[in-house]
Amino acid sequence: MKLNELTITNTLKGLENHDFSSEEVTKDCLSKIGQTNKKINSFISIFEEEAIASAKIADEKIKKGDKLPLLGVPFAIKDNFLTKDRRTTAASKVLDDYIPQYSSTVIRKLEYAGAIILGKTNLDAWCHGSSTETSDYGSCKNPHDTNTLPGGSSGGSAAAISSNQTIGSIGSETAGSIRQPASWCGVVGLKPTYGRVSRYGVIAMGSSLDSPGPLTKTTEDAAKVLEVISGLDKFDGTTSPKKVENYHKNLSADIKGMTIGIPKEYLMEDSQEGINQLVLDAAKQMEKLGAKIVEISMLDPKYSIAVYTIVQRSEVSSNLSRFDGIRYGNDRSLMGPEAKRRIMLGTYALSSGYYDAYYKKAQKVRMLLKKDFERVFQSVDTVLAPTSPSTALPVGSSLNHPMFGEIADVLVEASSMAGLTGINIPVGFIGKLPVGMQIIGNYFQEQTVLNLAHAYETSVDWRQNEFKS
Amino acid sequence: MSKKVNLSPKDFSNLATLSNLSPSKEESDTIRNQLSEALNAMDVLNELDTKDVAPLNHPTGEMVNVYRKDEVTSSLSQKEALSNAKSTHNGYFQVDAIFEDQEN
């Protein structure tokens, strides 16, 4: 087995036992990237020399017995996270030659924990989308079937994990951008509670929504990464002072007595055939493990589409106004059509005379979405649903469909609007294409969500064989 | 929001100016129609009564103003801050003139 096929957990074990070196793991990942990136196009920038140099330093530390949480483990990073002295583009030609003078907090935490940064992954330009097709660097392809899309906006990170180009990866979610590509690529994707992980140095999309998080091969890996990247950050006034739990140490497969609610509105009639059943089958599996499954009713997810459209585009119009080519980057004329659409709709929704009817109204409905979840969490521990109404769609599906993303993300938007935590976990396949289910937890209940996902994952044979040690 | 939105080319042009964007002639008609369609789709929110509902600003609801001590701490050096600018002059970012030359 090649070292790039390892999980974070098994990489750390192997490094500790001196079975192999970080340099070897890193080189295997780089080799896999070299063989497959032309076909999958998951990486925009590959930092080959820097990665090998970092791996060598990690190996020295390992020899000395240093015990850092991610020492020597290679990571792929979505290209909206600033990496000091290393190109960061947000997949837009506006930032084609941008070299950040500082790193995002998430990157600093990963590097401080000993992680190796392999390179920057492809995404929808400015995170605007759910397909990765709006990238100015060409679309990424789904490794399970390269005629299909990986989803987005963290499509590159999902594809990199799915194809074993990396051991761990980082993405960000505003409304589905971790969970949905994780679903389409058949990997674990965790969206933490808003405010759990710092947004400092993440190129802003929706400031009241953006949530950086891990995409990994297993739930244990996700827990490990979450521990490292979470926490109060003095550079981000919206981060929570809540103590970072030992998500990895406290990871448990014991879900006896846990109540899981499945909202009937999320088992949509027009979802692709087979998806709802796979999720219900997974729920039955969780019942066998001791959880209680109940049907619940929630606000129709269709409202979250409109809320998201207005709130996100309004915040985008403000956040992208800084890209004027003066202090960094190129001229705004290089903004793609999707970016132009979103900026202009946001500007309209915020402008005098329209602010109340659009932005304020959307924020009020957003409060209703939050209250709806608060209501159900009084009687259930977690909410379970399919992550996406379909499996990976064919290349080209998002073109000429301005609301493509919003409709593809209909099942994840409400929980994102409410700022909750959610995880995608693979539950099966339809043909060649993965199907994912999402587990949504209450604020800062990442441990509960991870435990339920872990319990399911470790109880099904096919998941055990997916990522072997 | 109950009246159907139909952005005129003039509305669109004003919007483009406000957004600091210059879409091409070809793009403008397409985007204008797409925007009108998207805005009309937002009408669905009027199905919900939000008369006594406060807008949600911070999702987890617990944040109040977060302050730090008013002290000078380390920051980017001038050289670092200018490092990505296409046009600089004597340690300044160079921008297009805002004021026209005027005879005094």
What does this structure look like?
The complex is a heterodimer of chains A (469) and B (104). With 469 residues, chain A is α/β, with parallel strands linked by helices. In chain A, 38% of the residues lie in helices and 14% in strands. Chain A has helices spanning 8-16, 22-40, 48-64, 105-112, 155-162, 179-185, 219-229, 275-288, 302-319, 337-350, 356-376, 404-408, 410-417, 446-459, 461-466, and strands at residues 43-46, 74-78, 116-121, 168-173, 188-191, 211-216, 259-263, 292-296, 382-386, 421-430, 433-441. Chain B is built from 3 helices and 2 strands. In chain B, a hairpin with a 2-residue loop joins strand 1 and strand 2 (92-93). Chain B is flat, with a radius of gyration of 23 Å. The model of chain B has no long low-confidence stretch (mean pLDDT 89). The chains are: A alpha/beta (469), B mainly alpha (104). The interface between A and B is large, with 62 and 47 residues.
Kindly report the greatest chain-chain contact and the residue count on each side: A-B, 62 and 47 residues
Q: Into which percentage range does the β-strand content of chain A fall?
A: 5-15%
Strand order of the largest sheet of chain B: 1-2
Total strand segments of chain A: 11
| Share in helix of chain B | 25-40%
Count of alpha/pi helices of chain B = 3
Report low-confidence residues of chain B grouped into runs of 5 or more: none
Order of strands, widest sheet of chain A: 1-3-2-4-6-5-10-11-9-7-8
Low-confidence stretches of chain A: none
Largest sheet of chain B at a glance? 2 strands, antiparallel
Morphology call of chain A: globular
Structural class of chain A: alpha/beta
